[in-house]
Amino acid sequence: MSDFGKIFDKTKFRNEGDGIFAFKPQPDRYLSFFTDDKKVIVTNGFVKKTDKLPRSEKDLAVRLRQDYFERKQGGRG
Q1: Is 69 exposed, middle or buried (0-12, 13-18, 19+ CB in 10 A)?
Q2: Cα 1 from chain centre
Q3: Is the overall model pTM greater than 0.85, yes or no?
Q4: What is the pLDDT of residue 50?
């Protein structure tokens, strides 16, 4: 997926916006993002209870993504 930039099965893997993607094995969801060197970083997971992605879960993933890139840029970790 990261090689071609295409998501072929949106029922299993979906772009949620803001650079966040969701792996969707039932009933769980795992939020993640891609790095520049094509790694997939899983930020958080949760059990799906509603049809929509909970805003708090996406906000957490966005904050963790931002933290990752800030630490990587700063040379920490």
Answers
A1: middle
A2: 13
A3: no
A4: 87
